[in-house]
Amino acid sequence: MGDAAVMQHTYRKGSLREMRRHIAAHWWQARRLGFGCWTVRHEGRVVGFGGLNDDPLDPGYGPEVAYFFAREAWGKGFAGEVVAASLDWARELGLPNVCAFVHPQNAASRRVLERAGFTVERWVPDMTRWLLRIELKGA
Q1: Predicted confidence (pLDDT) per residue in 16-65, tens digit
Q2: CATH of the domain at 118
Q3: Residue 83 and residue 92: Cα distance in Å, rounded?
Q4: Residue 25: which domain range?
Q5: Which has the closest alpha carbon to 75: 104, 111, 103, 36?
Q6: What secondary structure does DSSP assign to 12-80, as a single string?
Q7: How far is Cα 6 from Cα 115, in angstroms, rounded to an integer?
Q8: What's the number of domains the chain is made of?
Q9: What is the mean pLDDT of residues 58-81?
Q10: DSSP class of residue 11?
């Protein structure tokens, strides 16, 4: 998350202290809710993280899918795998829907979400992001 190119379409923490606070808040939320992000490993190396979460630092949107990958992991299908696994988990939990956010310049991420069935719900000006959502059948 310290790579400016990787984080160009999302937020970037300004210090290690801010990042630790961010991780601690998400860890607490995951323990409370029973779901949170996973570490993504490839060939024995961590290449990113992502999954189903409910952001404790930006509440009110409900469960969402998020993912972040090192540049060498881009274009290898990891985001699609994280999205699919997250939606499977959301269905098992009985969640009625899941959202995701995407920056307007992040066309690759938007394609991943739309292929999975997400549709644009609305623009969120204070986040400069599109809010996408998917209704889950059988939930």
Answers
A1: 787 677 677 767 777 888 888 888 899 999 888 889 988 766 768 889 99
A2: 3.40.630.30
A3: 14
A4: 16-135
A5: 111
A6: --SSHHHHHHHHHHHHHHHHHHT--EEEEEETTEEEEEEEEE--TTS-SS-SEEEEEE-GGGTTSSHHH
A7: 22
A8: 1
A9: 86
A10: -
pLDDT averaged over every residue in the chain: 84
In this structure, what token pair is assigned to residue 8? 């160009």
**What pTM does this model have?**
0.81
In angstroms, the CA 130 to CA 110 distance is 9
- For residues 103 and 51, what is the distance between their CA atoms, to the nearest angstrom? 18
Which residues, including other chains, have CB under 8 Å from residue 126's CB and lie 6 or more apart? none
What are 114-127's pLDDT values in tens digits? 999 999 999 999 88
